[in-house]
Design goal:
Strand content: under 5%
Number of helices: 8
Mean pLDDT: 88
Order of helices and strands: HHHHHHHH
Helix content: over 70%
Largest sheet: none
Number of domains: 2
Number of strands: 0
């Protein structure tokens, strides 16, 4: 199970590396063109003393901006990324971010699907091995990478501890995929 999960994580990571590398190279090429190539071509435009098309004027303005402010913008973006990563260490902000992430159309569906599958498969393996349900729920909760889903799993554990059926406890959350809730309820 762990090997399959690690293989899936490696595939997902590999799938994201290529587009990220292409994007990074593309941004670097644009910055190079705006910083070095366009300024060299500007002299030809200045000597021609003709009215430049709007698109050319925009490109020249972008080139001037990148030469003047590019390094500061880069530092600013890096600082924002670091600040964001540090801010996400706060539990309440992390919870709000993860809740918002689940509402993003394609991303939310992916995050919910991966986390639900991980939660369900971990719980199934543990229950097949004879681990009690409450302990299995706690261990399965540890596999969730989304703070909102982890909080919902805590609530599911509390409801099961109070005597509720697992399917009913999952259904109350209104977060987990209906197929998961239905399959769990059918299996009880």
């Amino acid at each position: 199970y762990i090997e399959e999960r690690n293989a899936l994580q490696a595939k997902v990571l590999t799938a994201f590396i290529y587009p990220a590398a292409i994007s990074l190279v593309s941004v670097a090429i644009v910055i190079f063109l705006l910083s070095y190539v366009v300024p060299q071509v500007v002299t030809a435009f200045v000597q021609a003393r003709q009215t430049l098309p709007m698109l050319t004027q925009v490109m020249l303005a972008a080139s001037a901006f990148v030469r003047s402010w590019g390094m500061w913008v880069g530092f600013g973006v890096a600082a924002l990324v670091v600040a964001w990563r540090l801010a996400l260490r706060r539990p309440e902000l992390r919870l709000r971010w993860d809740a918002m992430l689940l509402r993003v159309p394609m991303v939310g569906r992916f995050v919910l699907g991966v986390n639900s599958a991980r939660f369900a498969s971990t719980l199934a393996i543990l229950l097949d091995a004879g681990v009690p349900l409450l302990r299995g729920l706690e261990a399965a909760r540890q596999t969730l990478g989304n703070a909102l889903l982890a909080r919902c799993a805590d609530d599911v554990s509390a409801r099961v501890r109070e005597g509720a059926a697992l399917g009913a406890a999952l259904k109350v959350q209104k977060v987990y995929p209906p197929i998961l809730v239905h399959l769990v309820a059918s299996g009880e």
